[in-house]
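Q: Hi! Curious about what Capsular polysaccharide biosynthesis protein looks like structurally. Here's the sequence.
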Amino acid sequence: MEETINLKELFLTLKKRLSLIIIIAAIATATSGIVSYFLLTPIYQSSTQILVNQAKSEEQIYNYNEVQTNLQLINTYSVIIKSPAILDKVIEKEKMDMSYRALNELVTVSSEQDSQVVNISVKNEDPKIAANIANSIAVTFQEEISKIMNVDNVSILTQAQLGEDPSPVKPKPLLNMAIALVAGLMAGVGLAFLLEYLDNTIKSEQDIENVLGLPVLGAITTINIEEEAAASANMSTTIGTRGESFGS
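A: Let's find out. The predicted structure is below.
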């Protein structure tokens, strides 16, 4: 006998296990909030910008080919910025107890398309240290690039600044809790259907027909003797009261 999906049964299953679903979602959300607020270390990010552009005198005019050359050099500069030639010197300058590989993972270099501006971003547990490292990388790169490639077309556009109340870039507790809530609901719904699937007890006449494939000829009603006796006594009292009323 083929089984068909009954939307009403699905709804009744969710309603039946609603408390379980809510509990799982609440636990997941609360756990995510506790981990995000109290266990994860906040990470701050600070950024500085450098401009790749050859300095010109008033007699020099705009040169399109030179701009294109600068744009093509940006990819090369991005690699050099994160190379040991720059980061090792930054570690030495800032007297950091950190390896080149560890610092490299904290540094991100990016640029907009067709833009001569390069963004250098640094992440650290301390926002002040992140700003200092970002500025040190920019200054060190500006000093060393002339030695490495024999060019002088890099200038610092903006320096990393430490705000009055810096906010961490991660973790993001509200986002984490929202994700945990959705995941908890999905897990709760999945568990509810799994429990319903594993429950092979027969609860109704329909279950008998579905499992055994036999029609139900009759059903035995459960009778509570105490409730029936109380109901009979109440009915007798009511009839007696009415009889007295009519007799009077």
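A: A fun detail: The longest strand covers residues 44-52.
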